[in-house]
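B., you asked whether I could sanity-check this one before it goes into the benchmark set. Here's the sequence:
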Amino acid sequence: MKTELYFMIRHTPFWAIPILLLSGEFAYLFWLRKKKTNVKICILFMLISITALSWYYYAGGPDKSVKKFMKWQRTFEL
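And here's what the prediction gave me:
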């Protein structure tokens, strides 16, 4: 479980950028068709992608983002 999570954090731009672009396009299409619930879902995916990308670049890239996440995760262990 942890290795898959670390893999996703390490390769964030490879999944977050396509999700960001696709959900933005679908949010616009659903907005034109006045389907508000679908627009909200797409905007939620966009926010998750933007947050993940922000963390990735703030942390300093693939290796540092995983190390900072591991350090942050240790604060919650008992």
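One thing to flag: The first helix runs from residue 2 to 10. Otherwise nothing jumped out at me.
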